[in-house]
Amino acid sequence: MITLKLRYTDxxxxxxxxxxxxxxxxxxxxxxxxxxxYDNYDGKREVRLLGIALSGLEKGTGxxxxxxDERSRPNIALAIDAVRDRFGYDAIRLGxxx
Length: 98
Fold this sequence. Notes:
By secondary structure, the protein is α+β, with helices and mostly antiparallel strands. It has one domain (2-88). The protein is 29% helix and 21% strand. The protein has two helices and three strands; from the N terminus they run ββαβα. The protein has a three-stranded antiparallel sheet, with helices on one face. Strand 1 (2-8) and strand 2 form a beta hairpin.
């Protein structure tokens, strides 16, 4: 489950959640977060706090090595991982387009 907490500067707080199928693709999680945000952000007020929580996580299977190598991941995810491995996690961040 992906939960979004959105608090405006007037302290009005919205909490919304959506459940998606189990995935190890960060792009699916980010797409869900983006939809939750834009479905609930009024576009007029400033945001004081934006929180994202993931729950109900499942442990990944450990034996997906046979034909499932790194080539099956999208190139962008591999590039991001390479930058983070070399320069640290905070060296690159994903942004959400408006």
